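Quick log. Single chain, no ligands specified.
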Amino acid sequence: MDIKTLQRYIRKVRRQTGSTVQYFRLAFEGNKIERLTDFSSLKRPVLLLQGYGGTRRVFQVLERRLRRDGFNVFSLNLGGIFDTFNTKPIPELAQLVAKKVEGLYKRHDIREKLVVIGHSKGGLIGRCYLKDFDGHRRVKTLITMGTPHNGNPWAMLGLLTRLAFLTESIRQMTPMSPFIRRLNRTPWPEGVKIVSIFSKGDTVCPYPSAVLKTPKGRVKNLEIQDVGHVEFLMKKRVYWLIRKELLGGKAAAGHSLPRRKIRRSGSSSRSIAQ
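-> predicted structure:
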């Protein structure tokens, strides 16, 4: 290994370590957040769903960017261990999401359809909500980041520990679990777009766990290079991908960023604004 390669590796480790420390610091701040969204006049609504072990606070950076660009963002306390860390079974959480969203839409007479953004396990909760609890009636787009759509091989290790007995959702995220197999067999709802953002630099949800295998035209797989699992929530170039999808594939005016290669699964690499 030459000096330049070693230096790049050290910078990468430092960067990902810093992001991981920030993630856990935010996660341990819990689910108490300041309510900033006015549901009585909700426009461009976005629901954020955190991953396993995460809390609402881990979306701090992403939420701030979305609000800055005019989106009305909200999240939910998904409970779990200590009523905090999102460890409950995925179908149970999808049903909770359905109940909360229906309550909000009826209480405030909301007409505009919702965008759901899920990180890791949060993306599976979003898929389950759409497919099993009529979420397609309220949702127009689901965007997932580092979500184990095909199961996560690391979850198999959880079966060898007490974690699997403490939380059923670890078993549900194994590659051959009945939950994952059923979710991938169930037809995707008409009229709902799904975008899966993944990275081969994600060692927590290793490639190709996050690549959707649904027929073309129904989904979009976007590969972004050199992004760790928790960095999906913090990297600006990940956000530009998300924002472009929220704006219907159009970049917002007045913003110019360096261009980096993003790979669309199954096609040649292309460059987009980060």
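The two ends are 30 Å apart (CA to CA).
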